[in-house]
Design a protein that fits this description.
Shape of chain A: globular
CATH superfamily of chain A: YaeB-like
CATH architecture of chain A: Beta Barrel
CATH class of chain A: Mainly Beta
Largest sheet of chain A: 6 strands, antiparallel, barrel
Helix content of chain A: under 10%
Order of helices and strands of chain A: EEEEEEEEEH
Distance between the termini of chain A: 41 Å
Number of domains of chain A: 1
Structural class of chain A: mainly beta
Strand content of chain A: 25-35%
Largest interface: A-B, 74 and 74 residues
CATH topology of chain A: Elongation Factor Tu (Ef-tu), domain 3
Oligomer: homodimer
Radius of gyration of chain A: 17 Å
């Protein structure tokens, strides 16, 4: 059960978010290049509007089991599984994106928070079972989210 | 870029869905056991109502790049990345669950479609950026979904 599980990237983020805060992640178009041997797997993806990108935090530092979110002393120390931070036991990243164009072997998406060079492990279409309209997050998360995020991207659709 | 990426399970599905269609996946409570060395990472997860479970389709057959969904001849052949089927290049599974109880080292959740023994790779809390209220899926998906699914589980919240 604890033997290692080895995966191979199916593609790479060819054009990712610049390493600067000046770019709006939510309107930036990222380019994922799918490796030749997996391109056929994209067939029909263009009929979906949104997808999950499972990618690797390939520059993540050593895993931590607890941390203060964003290193802020005013926030509680929480477990890594209560956050989406990169320094996880398995540095898997998960982001919901808007599909802008499926142009094999490339895929253009909006909302991806990966840098160029990040390995991509999987693409999964978004469907009805992925929408939770009544959910709870901790107070520390809500406060920080309101403080920093402002408007949600229009392509997530209206809120309830 | 194509060198293998090796991960280790952080836990295992101790009580998963029975291998029978007679159980309602959406009201069944699954038990995930987190391995001792990662238990501290659960701290604060109980303040969220929903989470993503990233697990492994450990019994998935050889990967395919295209398939007819559910093996149905009346549905179009589509790429594996346009489906959530198990026989993917990287057999990663992703399910949104309702958190029923965080009782370290165990986590009880509703909605997990994993069998007992499935390795768990990561847990990520569900938040505002994961909700897409206006999205599109292909006609073949919509028809099959309506035909087979009926009501969505109440714990996903009301639909728009």
């Amino acid at each position: 059960m604890t033997s290692p599980i080895c995966l191979r990237p199916i593609g790479v983020v060819e054009v990712g978010l610049p390493r600067s805060d000046k770019v709006d992640r939510f309107s930036f178009v990222s380019v994922i290049k799918i490796f030749d041997e997996y391109v056929e797997g994209l067939r029909g993806l263009e009929e979906y509007s949104h997808a999950f990108i499972v990618w690797l935090f390939h520059e993540a530092k050593a895993a931590r089991l607890t941390l203060r979110p964003w290193g802020r002393e005013d926030l509680p120390e929480v477990g890594i599984f209560a956050t989406r931070f990169p320094n996880r036991p398995n540095p898997l990243a998960l982001t919901i994106v808007k599909i802008v164009e499926v142009d094999p072997p490339r895929l253009r998406v909006m909302g991806l928070d990966a840098w160029s060079g990040s390995p991509v492990l999987d693409i999964k279409p978004y469907d009805h079972l992925d929408v939770v309209n009544e959910f709870k997050t901790p107070d520390w998360f809500e406060e920080f989210f309101k403080e920093t995020r402002g408007e949600l991207p229009h392509w997530l659709g209206p809120r309830r």
